Precorrin-3B C(17)-methyltransferase (Methanothermococcus okinawensis), 251 residues
Amino acid sequence: MLYVVGIGPGGEKYFTREAEEVLNKVDLIVCYTGYRRYIERFKKEIYTTGMRGEIERVRYALKEGERRDVALVSSGDATIYGMASLVYELAEKEGYKVPIRIVSGVTAASASSAILGAPLNHDFVVVSLSDLLTPLETILKRVRCALEGDFVLAIYNPVSKTRKKPFLKTLEVIKEYGEKRGVDYIVGIVKNAGREGEEYRITKIGDICNHLEEYMKFIDMNTTLIVGNTNTRIILNKMVTPRGYLNKYKV
Ligand SMILES: C[S@@+](CC[C@H](N)C(=O)[O-])C[C@H]1O[C@@H](n2cnc3c(N)ncnc32)[C@H](O)[C@@H]1O
């Protein structure tokens, strides 16, 4: 059996009870090298591969899953920029005969939203800025469409050590939309949600563009950004997107 398990953004407190149960009962845990520290406490055989080792990792999990119980671990939710889709694709393409079960986890957007206040409390879009598997033009088109629809925007994979261009281009697009609408969009930035080193900032797109160097030092690959819509407000020092109850019920 192959379980594909989302473990949340990192810390133990974000593991669901179901994830704990599965990780306690499997024979082997397969994961990215960087997540080893989160699953060592289960005292199981562990197989890891590093960055760009996804295909090798998933193939090994599928092969081993044919003869014993295996958990392939993904951070956050395995179906949100995780390993779950690759598991199904490879299983079909290479003909592995293994039952697959996905165990959902807390995704970075959800953990970050709670840290910031309630910015995802209305319609939102999630975009990854990684242009490794998606062309930059497609990413920017999706960002524009989200802004056009006045969706709140959750941004994953903002930068890596070498990849900054998609983020800089995205900032330009957001600023341009804001200027067109007369809005300085509120932006929440969460780094290491639920992990050691958790930090957040609530700011505006104009401030990010005016102090770019400083923000580029803060934002890294463990950061999620949430860009508010035109109704998002700061309430009690937190970032909140109202659903409209007060207007509807004249409170
Ligand atoms: C490849 S995606 C994986 C997303 C993951 N499957 C999920 O559901 O959260 C990696 C991106 O998720 C976000 N992320 C993951 N863990 C995070 C954390 N603890 N704090 C903030 N952002 C995080 C970052 O934007 C990071 O670049």
In short: The chain has two domains: 2-106, 109-240.
